[in-house]
Amino acid sequence: MIELRNVTKKFGRNTAVNDVSLTVTAGEIFGLLGHNGAGKSTAIGMMLGQVWPTAGQVKLCGHEVTRDRRRALQKVGAIFEAPAFYNDLSGWRNLEILSTYTAPTPARRIQEVADWVGLSGRIMDKVKNYSHGMRARLALAQALLPQPALLILDEPGDGLDPEGIHEMRQTIQRLHRELGLTILLSSHLLVEVEQVCLSIAVMNQGRKVFQGGIAETRQARGWVRLRTGNFAEAARILRESGLITREREGQFILPAEGVGADKVVERLVERRQPVFEIAPEEETLESFYLSLMKK
Amino acid sequence: MIYYQLRNELWKMFGKKRTYIGFGAFLLAHASILLIFRYWQGPRRDMVHRLELLGYDSQKYISNLTMAVAVLVPVAVLLMPLYVALVGGDLLAKEVEDGTLRMILARPISRLRLALVKWLAGLIFSVVLALALGGVGAAFASCLFPSGGLFVFLPMEGIFSLFGPGQGWSRYTIATIIVSANAATVMGLALMFSCFNVKPAAATILALSVLLTSRIIQEIPYFHDLQPWFFTYHMNYWIKMFEQRVPWAEIMQSLSVLFGFNLTLLIIGCVAFQVRDIKS
User: Does residue A56 fall inside a structural domain?
Assistant: First the structure.
């Protein structure tokens, strides 16, 4: 659905995106992560034909954006951080205006989308009277009008309150579930990405430093969380038995090579130590992301 | 499709309050100038004196038409470019500044088409503004002065003309229509700057700077021979409609030059808009 091949973008001497290749397949909810200035928005700008790549190739829905923009963007909807509208016009008129840049849209379709995003009661109000949340819904409505197959969301959670962020998350999942959209979500809200996306790419200083499934980011690095009545005593027993090599933070142990949870539990039970929980440590996306940034 | 997109641009343009500043300013300028003419004897006495000195019946020529032209000339030359440049400078640069251009360019419309649609909308605005200028002047003058012939005295242009009401109104109407070509030129200039990576205010100021610079250079006596090379020189030609004998060939020549100038501005603007990056 999205294919970036060795894409580079330079602004003068500054390289905003450096030799990035990226593939998003149809039906995915794909997260694009990175700090401010990492190159996410520039990459999205190149996907939408708003920023010209210095080198490389950008394809959307099988069409090269720089050469065949019209066909590449025919089935694409996009939402940007702090959605901008014509504030002196009504929500309805904004939708009419924006949709005709793709194709004239019948009033029935506009009403349908306004209902879908929950704006039908206020759609005739001027946008300057909309709250931030309502503007976010209107942004979603304009993106959905051309019946897209691909939705590109550039920092959609920026400026939203916790309820707004929760609603946004629900909406993204609903879009994927009900409309079967492929979604590219660019964000630095790691928790949101972690809860919504199945695959991610991480950008750092213009380069892609990781691409893979969310599951890969959670891979245990060998540490096991152990909850017991007396962690220090349990750790001493396990160390003396040669079952662990290290412990940390009063709850994590690093088993010796070839030692499984069964052996650890067996030894502790033998020594009458209660075991309440034993589970592999799951790395959070945040810790994974931070470790990438340090590299 | 282009109809809908042009309609969009007009909705956007006429949905903004600042679009109406020009219309409001014209109302104010016309009202002020005509009220001074009506109730302050000084300027009228001067006009009467000039006419009677040459043996004309001043009562026939101190009319709504004469006053409408007396207001049209300064407002069209000084005020109109300001408001046209204000709207023209906004056309693209304001959309970039507000972030709405990113929303538009996330859709499958080509930049060339968008620039052309905006230029068309600007052209329509220029024509409407120029016609409003002429219409408002005629309406105000008709409220305050009696009907009659047209007396035009523009010493800088070497014009001293007298017309009957029929011919006077037709000259006034055609002059107003030609003024819209001037408005379109200023609009094209402001839109061209708006296509570059500049703020809306900068586009407006740049357009006005070019306009004023051209006018200043054109007025320097030593540059007299170079005058036809300045676009502002050709923008003055609508005033020739008030010469006793209309120099149609020269007016058409000037309109052709302005057409070429506008086309050049449009091409430069489109190219600049096409190659630039649109970032948040």
Answer: yes
C-beta atoms of B108 and A96 within 8 A? no
| Nearest residue of A to residue B108, measured between CA atoms | A70
Q: Do A86 and B12 touch (CB under 8 A)?
A: yes
Clarify whether residues A261 and A240 are in a common domain. Answer: yes
C-alpha span between B73 and B182 (Å, rounded): 12
* Residue A291 maps to a domain: no
Helix, coil or strand: residue B220: coil
Q: B106 and A74: CB-CB below 8 Å?
A: no
A204-216: average pLDDT: 85
- Residue A48 contacts B, CB cutoff 8 Å: yes
Enclosing domain of residue A180: 2-217
> If pLDDT is split at 50, 70 and 90, which confidence band does A219 have?
low
* Chain A, chain B: beta-carbon pairs less than 8 Å apart: 92
Amino acid letter, residue B133: L
The answer to the question of residue A294 being in a domain is: no
Task: Check: CB of residue B171 under 8 Å from CB of residue B150.
Answer: yes
Cα(A174)–Cα(B149) distance, integer angstroms: 73
Say whether both A123 and A178 belong to one domain. yes
Considering only CB atoms, which chain B residues are within 8 Å of A82? 99
Query: Is A193 a domain residue?
Result: yes
Domain end position, chosen among A217, A236, A252: A217
pLDDT digit string (tens) for chain B, length 280 residues: 788 889 989 999 888 888 888 788 888 888 898 888 888 877 778 878 887 887 777 788 889 999 999 999 989 998 899 999 999 999 999 999 999 999 999 999 999 999 999 999 999 999 999 999 899 999 999 998 999 999 998 888 888 899 999 999 999 999 999 999 999 999 999 999 999 999 999 999 999 999 999 999 988 888 888 888 999 999 988 999 999 999 999 999 999 999 999 999 999 999 999 999 988 7
Contacts of A52 in chain B (CB under 8 A): 275, 277
Quote the CA–CA distance of A139 and A171 in Å, as a whole number: 12
Residue A241 has pLDDT above 60, yes or no: yes
Task: Please check whether residue A80 touches B, CB under 8 A.
Answer: yes
Spans of all domains in chain B? 2-275
* Domain co-membership, A22 together with A142: yes
Q: Which of A197, A217, A237 is the last residue of a domain?
A: A217
Mark whether A245 and A136 lie in a shared domain.
no
Residues of B in Cβ contact (< 8 Å) with A69: 108, 110
Contacts of B220 (CB under 8 A, 6+ apart): none
Place of tokens 């909406």: A171
A52 touches B: beta carbon within 8 Å = yes
Inter-chain CB proximity A93 and B15 less than 8 Å: yes
Same domain, A143 and A189: yes
Q: Crossing angle of helices A132-144/A107-117, nearest 10°?
A: 130
Domain count, chain A: 2
- Please check whether residues A196 and A282 belong to one and the same domain: no
Whether A211 and A76 map to the same domain: the answer is yes
Reported ipTM = 0.81
Kindly tell me the sign of the dihedral angle through the C-alpha atoms of A59, A60, A63, A66. Answer: negative
